[in-house]
Amino acid sequence: MEIFRQQNKYFLESNSEKIIVNNKFLILEKKAKKGSAVAQHNLAYEYHKNHENKKALYWWKKAALEKNYGKAYFNLGIIYYHGWGVPINHSKSLKYLLKSIKIKHTLLKYAYHAVGGMYYAGEGTKKNMRKAIKFYQMAVKLNNIPSMGMLESIYQSKKNKKYYNSRKAFKYELIMAKNNIARSQFKIGIRYLIGKGVRKNILLADKYLVKALFNKKKTFYDEPGNNLYERLKLKETERSLIEKLYREKWVYNPLLLKVLNKYLN
Question: How far is CA 165 from CA 160, 161, 205, in A?
């Protein structure tokens, strides 16, 4: 999962060997050496992009440990989680991520999601569903889509009866559908069609199934592919439901029916 901030590339290639020649990078390095936390953080990111993770680690540590810079703590957490230039250490990762949350920073929604995932999986700590949900919910408040997906999954699963809640699962699925996630649009459509966790509503079923069919946006949850069912990873039962809906014309939509037919035949 790529969660680092994208910036302009400062690395160029000479005729003889790869060297750092861009003036912007040199200025950034100069500011970092003078003690600018922002410059130290950005310089570390540039080293990370160039796969010089030991240098990246050095500058992120300076920005975090000496300047108490939140985003640097966040990136230290990510480095130790993945083992980029250091041995994987989930305990350290969690420690730095939690530290970054206390300081606050613009990557906060990613930090909440990452910490939620660690409590959910028991990485660097004991599994704790209550804390996982807490951090996922904080990430959702900042519009973190993957956290919405995790909460929907937690509340939808019957494996843990303590947290199973079909209404809450519907709530988060609906938020994702409104955020233009094609698979969620389809699932919401099916829910309205069969009355799963919500009252049956054929018009709303049609609305969301149409949105799913014509959704061209590729997201974290939507696999690329030309075939509607392949892209949405539909189960055979789900496919039969959508076929029944439009073949029996419960909702008359000639354009949608025409497009569907090339997938259904």
Answer: 10, 8, 21
On whether both 245 and 204 belong to a single domain, the answer is: yes
Per DSSP, the three-state class of 163 is coil
What digits encode the pLDDT tens for the residues 161-218? 899 998 899 899 999 999 888 888 888 887 887 777 788 888 888 888 878 777 766 5
Query: Where do the DSSP E strands lie in the chain?
Result: 12-13, 18-19
Selection from 157, 159, 153, 160 nearest residue 136 by Cα: 153
Question: Residues 106-135: what's their mean pLDDT?
Answer: 95
Mean pLDDT of 39-44: 92
Give yes or no for a contact between 155 and 163, defined as CB atoms under 8 angstroms apart: yes
Q: Are 63 and 29 in contact (CB under 8 A)?
A: no
The answer to whether residue 250 is domain-embedded is yes
Distances (CA, A) of 205 to 101, 181, 228: 40, 15, 17
Q: Which structural domain range is residue 64 located in? A: 1-97
In-domain check, residue 102: no
Instruction: Give, in order, the Cα–Cα distances in Å from 40 to each of 66, 95, 135.
Output: 11, 21, 28
DSSP-assigned letters across all residues of 6-74: P-----EE-SSSEE---HHHHHHHHHHHTT-HHHHHHHHHHHHHTT-HHHHHHHHHIIIIIT--HHHHH
3-state secondary structure of 168: helix
**Cα–Cα distances in angstroms (integers) from residue 77 to residues 25, 55, 178, in the given order:** 24, 16, 31
